[in-house]
Queue: 4 jobs
Job 1
Amino acid sequence: MTARSPPLAGRFRLIIVDDNADAGSSLGMLLQLSGYDVFVVQSGRDALDALDDFAPDAMILDLAMPRMSGLELARRVRRLPAWAELPLIAVTGQSMDEDRRAAKAAGIDFHFLKAAPSEPLLRTLISLQ
């Protein structure tokens, strides 16, 4: 992992949403070590509840979650005036063309495959700052 610059001053804040606690925690630790403020939740409902209190600069979400999928979470975030422009980043196992089209239609800005190298994700986060 070499793309390791910004945050620090005024640290960039991320909500990570993944129903798999291990996956969410692992990504959260990686990003904390890279200098980000991270809040990890395991459901879309918890992510929506955390928006105003945590005030993230971006949200990283899984697409395949029970009860509220990442696609539904993205649609709900886009309907909230205060958060309609929040950068949404899918980190998911769903990467077929139709998955990417559905993610884009739901308002997801970036789409990465889980377990892929972290460099592209870190470069994307740096570009958002």
Note: The radius of gyration is 13 Å.
Job 2
Amino acid sequence: MRMDSKRLEELLQRYWECETSLEEELELRNYFCNEPVPERWKEASTLFHYFEKQRQLMVRGNFEDSVVSKLKAPRGRMMTLVQISLRIAAGVAVVLAAIFFVRQEVRKDSTEMVFEDTYDDPKEALEETKKALLMISKGFGRAEAQARKINMLNEAQDKLKSKHNEETKKL
């Protein structure tokens, strides 16, 4: 099933805004899971492949009962909040300890360092600096591309959660 790029773009936009029908979502899933996908939609394809894989996982017979019982038990949710808070506090403590030790090392190293010029020619030093900054810039570019992928997945997950919460409220 081939889909023109304009239709695909429109469906994806509506999908990210949680405005597609079940039939349209099925159309998107079929396209991304069964067709060769152009490079610009590889990220969305990865997401749809993940959803398809998760959909195919076997669900236990009493799954619905266990989910409903967990939703009705506020004590379980409160325990989860306590656990999350403790984990966050532990993470903050580790980061603060790391910062303390790194600062100590930097202070110790800075008192021992003696700086010398490495280039006699300022133009040569400038060119080397440009090369180093270009290399760092390329690294940031790759990191930004990866962060965009993660952000795209997080946004999709947030939209799915909010849609699920709305549907739950309706029930």
Note: Residues 1-58 form one domain.
Job 3
Amino acid sequence: MKTAVVYYSRDGSTRVAAQTLAQKFGADLLEIEEVKKRGKSAGAFMAAGFGASFGLCSRLKNNFAQEMKGYDVICIGSPVWAGKTAPAVNAFIRDLDATGKQLILFTVQADEHPESKPPTCLEAHKAALEKKGASVSRLMRMHGAPPGKTADQQDMEKQIEAAYA
């Protein structure tokens, strides 16, 4: 089964998780990029959370529509902003032809105990993707690092190993 890990990362934590998953599965790694890069100021941080909280979609450099046709399993990763997935991931999921695909959805968030809150954003994406003909086999919520910092790779490896134990 050909596998891809597709992700968006602003500060690097989701990138670390995606790289770790790609290595674990022997998967191809594809980074979702927005047409307009997000700033690092406090105002940009607030705008990102606002966009995520309303389920907005970003304009993407590449939605990987053609590339996804060649994959059986797709892992989709997003940071969590204001309790929701990033607008770039919303756009990727909106455009994805998920028919017949096996999907793994994962988020990375600053909250040290991501499992303590309901996985509402993942559940919403799962339902939407299953309506599009996908099979969502796993939802994973991982702890990354505070905004502006990047998660430790060893910590991410431990979390992923625990999720697959």
Note: The first helix runs from residue 13 to 25.
Job 4
Amino acid sequence: MMQNAYTRTALVLLFMRGPAINDWVLQQTERLYLKCNGDLMNGIVLTYQTDNKRLWIKFRCDFRRTFVDTALEQ
């Protein structure tokens, strides 16, 4: 189950809760859905298959970029 990038990403997002990140989690969940299902009514085509490892890699990059420790270099 965890080898499927879509399922892995969705599961991680499911466990992320809190007032500081709820909006980000909702945004990422919507993006994940659109990447794999598209939205023909709004002209959005699917860009990834659910087993594409790029889904997980892109999610990790987005997570790190959003929640980077700004004091890490100090």
Note: The longest helix spans residues 22-37.
